[in-house]
Amino acid sequence: MTRIAKLYAAVLANPKTAITFAEFERLLRATGFVLVRIKGSHRHYDVPQVFTVLPDGKAVKVYLVRRFLEIVDEHGLHVEI
């Protein structure tokens, strides 16, 4: 199992898992999210819909992880290894 797959499994098991913003970005790219633009601190990713991420310190906010998991579930995305 790759590092990104282990990270995805950990987040899936517990969305409150503390992950860094860099890990979260790797997870976004691995599931097919594409960075379309950066405006200030806002990073806009696109899959079937726009997902805006606000990096705030080192750790990612829990609501962003939960929203990410909702989008992955809604659109049937999976981790590309």
> Which of globular, elongated, flat, extended, rod-shaped describes the shape?
globular
Spatial sequence of strands, sheet with the most strands: 1-2-3
Question: Approximately how much beta-strand content do the residues carry?
Answer: 15-25%
Just give the CATH class: Alpha Beta
Rounded average pLDDT: 90
Protein name: Type II toxin-antitoxin system HicA family toxin
Pfam families: HicA_toxin (PF07927)
Keywords: Endonuclease, Hydrolase, Nuclease, RNA-binding, Stress response, Toxin-antitoxin system
InterPro entries: HicA_mRNA_interferase, HicA_sf
Description:
The chain is an alpha+beta fold. It has one domain (about 5-75): 2-Layer Sandwich (Metal Transport, Frataxin, Chain A). It is built from three helices and three strands; from the N terminus they run H-H-E-E-E-H. The protein has helices at about 5-15, 20-30, 60-75, and strands at about 35-40, 40-45, 50-55. Strands 1-2-3 form a three-stranded antiparallel sheet, with no helix packed on it. The longest helix has 14 residues, at about 60-75. The N and C termini lie close together (about 10 Å). The relative contact order is 0.21.
In short:
Belongs to the HicA mRNA interferase family. One of its GO terms (molecular function) is hydrolase activity. With 81 residues, this protein is of the alpha+beta class.
Write the layout of secondary structure elements.
Elements: H1 3-13, H2 21-30, E1 34-39, E2 42-46, E3 50-53, H3 62-75
Antiparallel strand pairs: 1-2, 2-3
Keyphrases for this structure?
81 residues; alpha+beta; Metal Transport, Frataxin, Chain A; 3-stranded antiparallel beta sheet; 3 helices; 43% helix; globular; HicA_mRNA_interferase; mRNA binding; stress response; toxin-antitoxin system; nuclease
